[in-house]
Amino acid sequence: MWKVAVLGFLLGLQAQTMGPEARTTLHYNAVHHALVWNSPEAPTAGDKIEIVDLIGRRVAVLQPLPAEEGMLSLPALPEGLYYARWTTESGRIRAVRRFTVTR
């Protein structure tokens, strides 16, 4: 049992010394009813952010602006749970975020 704890501790130290991983983040801003992103690399022309409802229906497709961070206003959405999925032109998923719309 102590071997597992020591191994976990050593792996944790190694992860800390490697530094934080830079990745694309998405979050919902309820005040502005918008998606906010921050990315280590600017979006390309083929990138898109799809808004999908809880049962998998695509309710909106947004084109992120060519900047490392920004905000996109969302269309009027009924109350509920949604997912924002950022994909590149090649189909790679850069970020997925769940958010709730309330009134």
Q: What is the element string, with H for helices and E for strands?
A: HEEEEEEE
The oligomerization state is single chain
Main β-sheet, spatial strand arrangement: 4-3-6-7
| Average pLDDT figure | 81
| First and last CA, distance | 50 Å
CATH topology: Immunoglobulin-like
Helix content: 10-25%
Please describe the structure with a list of short key phrases separated by commas or semicolons.
four-stranded antiparallel sheet, 1 helix, 103 residues, alpha+beta, disordered N terminus
Report on this model:
This protein is α+β, with helices and mostly antiparallel strands. The chain has a single domain, classed as Sandwich (Immunoglobulin-like), CATH 2.60.40. Helices cover 16% and strands 42% of the residues. The protein has 1 helix and 7 strands; from the N terminus they run H-E-E-E-E-E-E-E. It has one helix spanning 2-17; strands at 25-29, 34-38, 48-53, 58-62, 69-73, 80-87, 93-101. The strands form 2 sheets. It has a 4-stranded antiparallel beta sheet, with no helix packed on it. A 3-stranded antiparallel beta sheet has the order 1-2-5, with no helix packed on it. Strand 6 (80-87) and strand 7 form a beta hairpin. The radius of gyration is 18 Å and the shape is globular. It starts with a helix and ends with a strand.
